[in-house]
Design brief:
Order of helices and strands of chain A: HHHHHHHH
Distance between the termini of chain A: 55 Å
Largest interface: A-B, 22 and 26 residues
Helix content of chain B: 55-70%
Shape of chain B: globular
Radius of gyration of chain A: 20 Å
Number of strands of chain B: 2
Number of helices of chain A: 8
Distance between the termini of chain B: 48 Å
Strand order of the largest sheet of chain B: 1-2
Strand content of chain B: under 5%
Radius of gyration of chain B: 21 Å
Structural class of chain B: mainly alpha
Number of strands of chain A: 0
Oligomer: heterodimer
Structural class of chain A: mainly alpha
Strand content of chain A: under 5%
Largest sheet of chain A: none
Chain lengths: 169, 353
């Protein structure tokens, strides 16, 4: 059951990600990204992390991407201009960057090959202890400091957005 | 049923449940439209639909037939795939969220709950998530129509839904903290001890949260007095200006299905769901399993119906907000009050231990 879900939604995520790159209109690209987010949410859920899946849908697909699409609609952005040859930095950094990521991923996979078949994340997150209880215990006990620091970071970001918007008004 | 395995029983019962719930929801949508037209008529001192069938009771069926038989116009300049996709998203999301609503007392047959399609331990989050995906239907319909009225309607509506989603979500946190669970069954169970006294809106001291939820829900479903997105005097019909025939009907059905979902959630979270307001006072009176189930469904339907009636009453009473008033109300009043409510609930819970 899980392997079927994984295959369907894994392929859907990859197809969405490729479509994001190939589409020429920003709205189509944004919608492909929504497809990727939703497939990732299903993958999380099939691993037993239902809270993470719901958060993924509510935060990424339901809030952030809606804002993306809202801005594209508001600016009425047209088709992407392909007459220019793109930025030089992307050309210089792109291929080595992609190669580095590929090397890193293959290193991780090769060095952890023994454990890959034996992961039991779905078994670890059983429904005996609620997922949310587990996450909140971890967040508010052992990871309290990073949690608070992140909230302050987000608060600073909100204040920064307000300051920037005030200058415009 | 002994020759079927447990999984087969589960599968069959689930399919039957989905079919029944879908049919009942769609019928409820059709008859909510009739109810609205009748009650609005009465409020405005006229009859409302009264020609088709006794008391106009067949009017929704005829309306459906009319919409089905109309010509399906496809304007030339629309963004075709998204134009077709938008009403499907809107109606699909509106119908999916009803799947996690428990509309009767827990009744197990072969380990399958009869009165709820899926009992998820994050049911409330699923409803919020599906609602937030429903915004895409409206946003895309306005943009893909390639018409300025549609675009303005959908921009207004999208901004309004994003803004009020925050107040809506925050108003539910107090209830979740009291129930200590996101499962809708647990939330209902947490307020079924002594009937109406232990409902969240009264004994749970979530009265403020209830009113915040009510106002945010009206804005979230684009209903009067927050129906800026379809202000006829300014925007023709809002985001569905360019739609005709069944595609228009899908938006129409989505709006009423959303109303029903929102009423169901209000019933579950604040009015004790399918539990009786009299508590266990008359438990000996209606003792059989069938009677208990029927009474619980009757209570649930009565509560949802009263919410729908309130929706219509508000529409017949209040004038429309201005857009800046709407945004100011959401961000500067509802959101802070919802946050204060969370703090107060958390402190009270900590105080009682």
């Amino acid at each position: 059951m899980e392997i079927v879900l994984f295959l369907i939604f894994g392929l859907l995520a990859v197809a969405g990600a490729l479509n994001l790159l190939f589409q020429r209109h920003p709205i189509n690209s944004a919608l492909s990204l929504v497809v990727v987010m939703m497939s990732l949410a299903v993958l999380y859920w099939s691993l037993g992390a239902e809270f993470l899946a719901a958060a993924q849908v509510i935060v990424y697909a339901g809030a952030i991407m809606v804002l993306f699409i809202f801005v594209v609609m508001l600016l009425n952005a047209g088709e992407e201009d392909r007459s220019s040859h793109g930025s030089k930095i992307a050309y210089i950094a792109g291929i080595p960057g992609a190669a580095a990521i590929f090397c890193l991923l293959s290193f991780v996979f090769l060095s952890e090959r023994k454990h890959l078949g034996a992961t039991t994340l779905g078994g670890y997150l059983t429904s005996t202890v609620s997922n949310i209880t587990e996450i909140s215990h971890t967040l508010f006990t052992s990871l309290l400091l990073p949690f608070e620091v992140t909230s302050i970071l987000i608060l600073v970001a909100i204040l920064g957005a307000v300051v920037l918007a005030r200058k415009e008004l | 049923m002994t020759h079927l395995t447990n999984f087969e029983i589960f599968l069959l019962l689930t399919i039957v449940k989905i079919a029944i719930v879908l049919v009942i929801t769609l019928m409820a949508v059709a008859y909510t439209v009739l109810l609205e037209r009748k009650v609005l008529g009465r409020l405005q001192n006229r009859w409302g639909p009264s020609r088709v069938g006794p008391f106009g009771l067949l009017q929704p069926l005829v309306d459906g037939l009319k919409l089905f038989l109309k010509e399906d116009m496809m304007p030339l300049a629309v963004e075709r795939p998204l134009f077709i996709l938008a009403p499907i998203i809107a109606l699909g999301c509106a119908l999916i969220s009803i799947a996690v609503v428990p509309f009767g007392a827990l009744t197990l047959v072969h380990g399958v709950d009869l009165f709820q399609i899926a009992n998820l331990n994050i049911g409330l989050l699923v409803i919020l998530g599906v609602t937030s995906i429903g915004v895409y239907g409206i946003a895309l319909s306005g943009w893909s129509s390639n018409s300025k009225y549609s675009l303005f309607g959908s921009l207004r509506s999208t901004a309004q839904m994003i803004s009020y989603e925050l107040a809506l979500g925050l108003s539910l946190v107090g209830v979740v903290m009291r129930a200590q669970s996101l499962s809708l069954r647990d939330i209902v169970a947490s307020q079924s001890a002594h009937g109406a006294i232990s409902w969240n809106v009264f004994g749970g001291f979530q009265t403020i949260a209830f009113f915040i939820y009510l106002m945010a829900a009206y804005a979230e479903t684009n209903r009067s007095p927050f129906d800026l997105s379809e202000a006829e005097s300014e925007l023709v019909a809002g985001y569905h200006t360019e739609y005709s025939s069944m595609k228009f009907a899908m938006f129409f059905m989505a709006e009423y299905a959303n109303m029903i979902t929102v009423s169901c959630v209000a019933t579950l979270l604040f009015l004790g769901g399918a539990s009786s307001p009299l508590g266990h006072l008359f438990d000996g009176f209606a003792s059989g399993p069938i009677l208990t189930a029927l009474f619980s469904i009757a209570w649930f339907v009565a509560k949802v119906f009263s919410f729908l009636l309130l929706y219509i009453w508000v529409r017949g009473t209040l004038p429309r907000f201005r857009y800046d008033q709407l945004m100011g109300f959401g961000w500067k009043f509802l959101l802070p009050v919802a946050m204060v409510n969370i703090l107060a609930t958390a402190l009270a819970l900590a105080w009682h231990g």
